[in-house]
Amino acid sequence: MNLYVVDGSAPPALLEGEPLSRRLASITFFFPALIQSRACFLKAAWTLQRRGVIRLCNVASPSDIDAINKRTDQLLESIHRLRTTGIVEEQITNAYLNLPGKLTIRGYKQLVHADRSVINLRFSRPDGRSGSDAGMIDIFHPQKLSPDFRHFSSRLLQEKVIRALIQTSSLCKVQTKCRNLYINDGVQDTRGFHCDGRSTKFKSFLFLSDVKHLEDGPYCYVSGSHHNDALWQKNRVFNEANGIDASEFTQLRGIQAIPLFANAGDMVISSQAGAHRGHPQMAEGSRRVLVAMYSPKSAIKLSRRERMNQSLRRWITTW
After folding, report:
1. CA–CA separation, 205 vs 313, rounded Å?
2. Which of 49, 128, 217, 300 is deepest in the core (most CB within 10 A)?
3. What pLDDT does residue 298 have?
4. What is the three-class DSSP state of 103?
5. pLDDT value for 8
6. Taking the CA of residue 167 as centre, how many other CA atoms within 13 Å lie in the half-sphere pointing to its CB?
7. Helix, strand or coil for residue 93?
8. Rounded to an integer, what distance in angstroms lies between the CA atom of residue 223 and that of residue 256?
């Protein structure tokens, strides 16, 4: 017996105006207050657990944002000259290059575990399917490009604090699995609402540019969808019946999503089990984001760490 009404793929409505302002205010915290106040930290962790997404303001200083953007501009110039002249300049010599028609590394797992930076230029799918993010430059492991990028990645992402926040929220020990630099300029063929599986996975998005309008391509999220089992089941049933991947959220009619507008230097943290997408940009739209992905440590690593901690505690006690 089919318990769900499945009437075709339906996107959610995007909040706007005063309702959007109120919703954003309810999930927004100032980073300086979060690191100084335990009450603020715990409220942010609780909100992340409940809503699946929060926004942190003033995570990075304007001077740091300006500095990493200058390095990124230089990187983009090198990529442009490579594509027009075929010359590989020093700044990208040690990176793997995934260019249209010439993939050096294939598959997401291989990209995540690459031993160098991977400059990944996304392009339209050969079969014509939508959602390819064609035109986006997705750089895996930007910290491996140069000492400058390593310094800024470490400084801007605030991984120690964010890791503690996610662990408090999820009651699960996590580690940084991958870092990315997203560069979107006029990217219109973005993937629809989807999730990255139902396992524990979080991402932090540090904005390097202002994203204040839909034309800029904001990150959009369906609040609470990360633990809405009924919604997941409704999508699963429809997707199975129509040959659609289980991770796509096709049944969101009547549901509202939040476009997460932000200033350069702000950060969004979200559970990737929830329904999310990057909104399509206008031709002149632009967005730069530095990203860190967090997921649980393996059981082996956890057990070894716990054994080491137990041994250390025993040693301290007897000493």
Report:
1. 36
2. 217
3. 67
4. coil
5. 54
6. 12
7. coil
8. 8
What single string gives the DSSP state of each residue in 183-213?
A: EEES------SB-S-SSS-EEEEEESS-B-S
Question: Bridge partners of 183?
Answer: 137, 288
Strand partners, 130: none
Quick check: 288 and 137 in contact, CB under 8 A? Answer: no
Task: Give the Cα separation of 59 and 67 in Å (integer).
Answer: 15
Q: Which of 221, 178, 176, 174 is nearest to 199 (CA)?
A: 174
- Measure the CA dihedral 44/46/51/57, to 10°: 0
Tokens linked to 67: 């500095």
For tokens 């995570």, the residue is 59
Full 3-state SS string of 262-288: ECCCCEEEEECCCCEEECCCCCCCEEE
Q: Max CA-CA distance within the chain?
A: 68
Say which residue the tokens 């137990």 belong to: 310
Q: Which residue has the tokens 């105006």?
A: 17
Bin 129: left if φ > 0, else alpha if -120 < ψ < 50, else beta.
Answer: beta
Q: How far apart are CA 75 and CA 183, in angstroms?
A: 11
Whole-angstrom distance, CA of residue 36 vs CA of residue 228: 33
Per-residue tokens: 297: 């440590």
pLDDT per residue as tens digits for the range 18-64:
999 999 999 999 999 999 999 999 999 999 999 999 999 999 999 99
